[in-house]
Amino acid sequence: MLRSGIALVCSVMLFVVSLSAQNLSRTEKKFIKSIEANNAEAIGFLEQVVNINSGSLNVAGVKKVGDVFGTAFENIGMKTTWIPMPEEMNRAGHLFAETNGKKGKKLLLIGHLDTVFEEDSPFQTFTKINDSIAHAPGGNDMKGGNVIILYALKALQEQGLLNDAQIIVAFTGDEESTGKPLTVSRKDLIDAAKRSDIALGFETSTGFNYATVARRGASGWKVEVTGKRAHSSGIFSENTGAGAIFEMSRILHRFYTDVKGEDLLTFNPGTLMGGTFVEYDDATSKGTVFGKSNVVAQKSEVRGGLRFISEEQKEGAREKMREIVANNLPMTSATVTFTDSYPAMGPKASNLELLKQLNVVSTDLGQGAVLAYDPGKRGAADTSFVADYVACLDGLGTMGRGAHTPEETVNLNTIEALTKRTALLIYRLINQ
Ligand SMILES: [Zn+2]
């Protein structure tokens, strides 16, 4: 609902954009003209890459999309590198394209080649629904964002404006389903960030008037409880104690009453099992339980997720959970374990400063003011991995609806305006 509201506002805004005055230098007007001249080609390019399946597990397909983008970046004078992942990871790898120089801010532009639609998905092709909307698997998330990066750089290169700038384009091949371990699959992205000042992420845009300055991180947790297996008639006795299920209930209740409450901190128990024997298969997310009503439960397990806005908040929540888990009911014991997934991208001052600059760029283009998007409403993304090293802004990609569903669409009418905004932001940053 929110997205459709934004989409409506956007189409009205585009109309205003073409009428309103622009506050641009002569050089800026030149590359804006290049973007207009290349726009039909950009949309054709998007159609071409959407029609190559690149589900995260389709290693050959992801590489193929990488090759098409790679050639296009080579054609505008960038040096490209394909970084393969180890075979056992079953992920294609990443495409990096780079220009070298010493001028202004050093930029890292982040996209991803993969989509959630694997080869067996019925949703495989780019189809125009009308003049402005295409039904396209990964068209919005995020091949459209990749195309914005490419055509913004192309326009700058055509005007000779990339000389002596350091720009690294990083298109990962496994954003939708990250290769493990993350220390391997995200190493090159993090190394690139360490050589940069600013990272711009081109994940799906939430409208002309919003950009992402903060995202919550994600982590997994698991509580395992052991009780004493005994006849139910003995429960509560000194010998038998409370059993695994009462202990798990205590733990979850205390999580709810004592850990809940901080702004942007959420944790969700996703599955709960308890009985005499429990078995859970992480690969299929399915489990089985055996137990009887006249037997005190000896096992209980809960698996859950945790979302947080800072490492400090994550650690604070984990500490409280550990304390609660350690304080067991009679004749039971419990452990909690955590797994790291995405780090948080906090709303750092440098991110807000970058947002201010985008706001000026947008206003100068007659595209209106840009505000910070609610971090509670955005999922985790690759920008989060580099947030500790550089100033970050995300959500600069295309607009559309239904990402990750067979209804995914991309709004073709907004691509030109978003590419202009990207090129102008890049131009001003590399000339600072
Ligand atoms: Zn994405």
Defining key terms:
Aminopeptidase; alpha+beta; disordered N terminus; Alpha-Beta Plaits; 2 domains; 432 residues; binds zinc ion
Detailed description of the structure:
There is one protein chain. This protein is an alpha+beta fold. The protein has eleven helices and 18 strands. It has a six-stranded mixed sheet, with helices on both faces. Strands 4-5-18-17 form a four-stranded antiparallel sheet, sandwiched between helices. Strand 17 and strand 18 form a beta hairpin. Helices cover 37% and strands 24% of the residues. The two termini are 39 Å apart. The protein is elongated and about 85 Å long. Helix 4 packs across helix 11 and helix 7 packs antiparallel against helix 8. It has two domains: 300 residues, Zn peptidases (Aminopeptidase, 3-Layer(aba) Sandwich), CATH 3.40.630.10; 125 residues, Alpha-Beta Plaits, CATH 3.30.70.360. Bound molecules: zinc ion. Zinc ion binds next to helix 4.
Spatial extent as radius of gyration: 25 Å
- What is the CATH architecture term of the largest domain? 3-Layer(aba) Sandwich
Overall residue-averaged pLDDT value:
94
Class from helix and strand fractions: alpha+beta
* Global morphology: elongated
Q: Strand count, sense and closure of the main sheet? A: 6 strands, mixed
Order of helices and strands: HHHEEEEEHEHHEEEHEEEEHEHEHEEEH
**Cofactors and ligands:** zinc ion
CATH domain class of the largest domain: Alpha Beta
- Spatial order of the strands forming the largest sheet: 1-2-6-3-7-16
Report the portion of residues in β strands: 15-25%
How many runs of DSSP E, i.e. beta strands?
A: 18
Fourth CATH level, the homologous superfamily of the largest domain = Zn peptidases
Output the CATH topology of the largest domain: Aminopeptidase
How many distinct domains? Answer: 2
- Percentage of residues assigned to helices: 25-40%
Task: Catalogue the unreliable spans.
Answer: 1-19
